[in-house]
């Protein structure tokens, strides 16, 4: 069964924000399925603080899971 979750991640760098969002979305997908494969991740920029000291991204993680 295909599962997809989107979570918002924040961090001091764009990479950290995407990683934080990915971890949260992946945990949500795994909470709904027992075993998942074929992971795909996409991210979309939301906001950055002046000077680039904080970044926010929406991260969507998709996978095929068994219940």
Strand order of the largest sheet: 1-3-2
End-to-end gap: 8 Å
β-strand amount: over 45%
Rg, nearest Å: 13 Å
Largest sheet: 3 strands, antiparallel
> In terms of per-residue confidence, which ranges show pLDDT below 50 for 5 or more consecutive residues?
none
Q: What's the number of domains?
A: 1
Helix and strand composition category: alpha+beta
Counting DSSP E segments of at least 2 residues, the number of strands comes to 3
Describe the global form. Answer: elongated
Please tally the helical runs, counting DSSP H or I stretches of 4 or more residues.
1
Overall pLDDT: 95
User: Helix-strand pattern, N to C?
Assistant: EHEE
Helix content: 25-40%
Description:
The protein has one domain (2-66). It is built from one helix and three strands, in the order E-H-E-E. The termini are close together. The protein has 67 residues and is α+β, with helices and mostly antiparallel strands.
Features:
single chain, about 70 residues, three-stranded antiparallel sheet
Architecture blueprint of SSEs:
Blueprint: E1 2-11, H1 14-32, E2 35-48, E3 55-66
Task: Give the structure's gist in a few sentences.
With 67 residues, the chain is α+β, with helices and mostly antiparallel strands. The protein has one helix at 14-32, and strands at residues 2-11, 35-48, 55-66. The protein has one domain (2-66).
């Amino acid at each position: 069964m295909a599962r997809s979750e989107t979570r918002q991640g924040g961090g001091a760098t764009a990479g950290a924000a995407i990683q934080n969002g990915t971890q949260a979305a992946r945990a949500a997908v795994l909470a709904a399925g027992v075993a998942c494969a074929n992971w795909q991740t996409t991210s979309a920029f939301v906001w950055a603080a002046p000077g680039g000291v904080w970044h926010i991204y929406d991260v969507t993680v998709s996978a095929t899971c068994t219940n």
